[in-house]
Amino acid sequence: LACELQNRGLDVHALELDQANHESVARLKTEIKARFGGLNVFVNNAVSRPMKGYCDSLESFAQSMRVNAVGMFDMLREMIDLMVMRGGGAVVNIGSMHGVFGPDFTLYEKTQDSPPDYHFHKGGMVALTRYLARRFGPQKIRVNCISPGGLYVENLSFFPEEFARRYIGKTPLGRFAQPDDIKGLVVFLASDASGYVTGENILMDGGLHA
DSSP for 128-179? Predict the structure, then answer.
């Protein structure tokens, strides 16, 4: 992807990261500081989903937390430190409606389960967004969260056909969210257009919870 964007004349760099490993996070921070002197915007969108359902092992829950909770906090703390060096910045956390609402199990009947670890760490992300917004607001760093629902990626969707039919039937807009739906919100929250917006969680679920 970086090469493709470079071929379009854009200044893009791909850097290696293992979010479950603090040494990897620290190396990334050092490299960003050396190359760019700091950071202006951080879009936090990494996720690992090792847990398949409520009855899955405690080991799978712990594995999920290593990336999605501990690793997430590690990345946020180190990337925000790079923003402090710059005198300000913007963080956009990519959460989920599952961090705000419990699952509608009628959607999952006879299809799949809704893994509890995902709800746990996405709910924590919303709370941490507010904490960080309070803590770093005086240093001109804004922290916000976007919570999409039913995000569909072609050729990568794991939604069973029956689940998809039920979900679309309950959503006022009558479709899944597409990747393009989220881009505008990310750009808005990363830019000066949202200069007085911080500590917010924006639900983007096609009206499902209206």
Answer: HHHHHHHHHGGGTEEEEEEEESSB--TTT----HHHHHHHHHHSTT-S-B-H
